[in-house]
Each structure stands twice: as structure tokens, then as C-alpha cells.
Amino acid sequence: DAAIYLFVRVARLGSRYILLLAEDRTESYRLEEVRRDFVANISHELKTPIGAISLLAEALETASDEPDQVTRFAKRLTKESERLGHITQEIIELSRLQAADALTRAEPVDVDQLVAVAVDQNRVVADARKITLVSGGDKGAEVYGDETLLVTALHNLIANAIQYSPDGSRVGIGVTQTDGIVEIAVTDQGVGIPEDELDRVFERFFRSDPARSRNTGGTGLGLSIVKHVVQNHGGDIRVWSQTGKGSTFTIRLPEAASASGAALGA
Ligand code: ADP
């Protein structure tokens, strides 16, 4: 909405003049609102598994005579605590990324290696769904940055591509190197994202309706983490998508030579 927050100070100058000082505080109000929403969302996301865990523990106590039930409750207990662990890890990761203005560790990173590692990490899940992971494109590209963070970012994109795709489909990971920019595109043949939600997918905790209704157990933090990693590396991320056809997420990073030069102030 279009509200503007003005902070007004009034001072009397002698008996004839009044001094009015108006300061536009719209931005700091907006940031405060974002922070409040974030905390509210975190509380909500944590309360759900914690509530489930205490209910299951209670049920486990009374079910001690029935081995079948005990096994069932114990399995769900494991699943809920894994979910809690996953959410906590993502929240910590995101907070760390948001706090860091610049990278603490930066070194030349081999893009072929980056793609190979992120693809490998997703192999088991893809195989289980008979989804083929195909990587290709320019070889030998190098970017400058924190390899662990970059792997996490690419991992998240590939994991999403698998998550939101039908069994037996294809996920492509393509590298292009042009004019000092390295582009890594992850393309799927999945459910796609409704047009009016495209610019919201990078928001913290945002999940589109199809994703929610499929109950994939996501947190809505994955893309937000990707965006922060890419931005911390001086790059950007774009998305193209059509519902029912699929999506392409493209990250663009400065090539190693130009990036390290910029970082050194050259
Ligand atoms: P999560 O996957 O945990 O819900 P993300 O931040 O990774 O959270 O993604 C946010 C939302 O963006 C998802 O809930 C989903 O609606 C949408 N999305 C992300 N990647 C894809 C994709 N490859 N295809 C379709 N929708 C996607």
C-alpha cells in the first residue's frame, strides 16, 4: 500500500517562529514490518512440528502395550524431528547469509565441479522418481566465491526442480559463459509457477498454492537462501515459468577473472 510514515519534530524558535522537521521513516517502518513477519513466520513454522512431537510422545506413552502403534508413532516422531532439524538449519543459514554483507571466504571455484557435486547430491532422490538429470554446456568456467555456499544454492535449485516435477521427467542443468558472466540454468518439465506468483517465490516462507496443496513438506526458505547466496557473490537470479509446462531458474555470476579483480578493487 501507499502509506508514508513521517516522523515530525516541532520546535519553537523564539516567540514568532515554529520549526517543523519531518523525516520520512517509511523504509525503516517497512523493514521493521518485514522483520516482524519473519519472526511470526518462524514461530509458526516451528510450532507445527514441535506440537506434533509432543502429541506423538504423549500417544507413545499410552500405546506402550501395542507394538504396532509404538512403531508407527516412533516413525512419525522421527519424521517430525527431522523436519524440525531441517527448518532450524535453513533458518540459521538464512540469518547468517543476511547478516553477511560480503563473503568471508572466497576462492576460485570450478563450475564443472560445482555442477557435478550438486547433481550427485540429488541423484538418489531423482533416481527414486525416475527423473533424469542432464548436465551440459560450456566447460571450464570458473567463478570466484565460497564453494560450499554455491553448492548449496545449486543444490536447492535442482532439488526444487525434482520436487515440483512428475516422475519420469527430465531436469537439465546448463552452463553458458559469455562476456565475463557465467550462467547456470536449471530447467524442469514440472508443475510451473502461476504468473502472479512469479515475483514472490524468492520471498522468505513463500510457497505457491500448487506447492502447498501437494504438501511436499517444504519450508519456503530454499529460494530465499539461493537468492542471498547469489547476491553475496555479486550475481543475480531469474525465473521463467509456465504452469503445466515447467520452469527455468537461471543464476548469473561474474566470471572468476573479473570477479576477483573487482573484489581487489582493480
Ligand atoms: P519450498 O520448496 O521449500 O516450498 P522454496 O523457497 O524452495 O521453498 O520455493 C518457494 C516456492 O516456489 C515453492 O513452494 C514452489 O511453490 C515454488 N517453486 C520453486 N521451485 C519451483 C519449481 N522448480 N517448479 C515449480 N515451483 C517451484
From TrEMBL:
Residues of the full protein shown: 119 to 384 of 384
Originating organism: Antiquaquibacter oligotrophicus
Lineage: Bacteria, Bacillati, Actinomycetota, Actinomycetes, Micrococcales
Compartments it resides in: Cell membrane
GO MF terms, alphabetically ordered: protein histidine kinase activity
Name of the protein described by the UniProt record: Sensor-like histidine kinase SenX3
Keywords on record: Kinase, Membrane, Phosphoprotein, Transferase, Transmembrane, Transmembrane helix, Two-component regulatory system
Catalytic activity from the UniProt record: ATP + protein L-histidine = ADP + protein N-phospho-L-histidine
E.C. code: 2.7.13.3
Primary localisation category: membrane
Domain Histidine kinase: 41-257
Class of enzymatic activity (EC top level): transferase
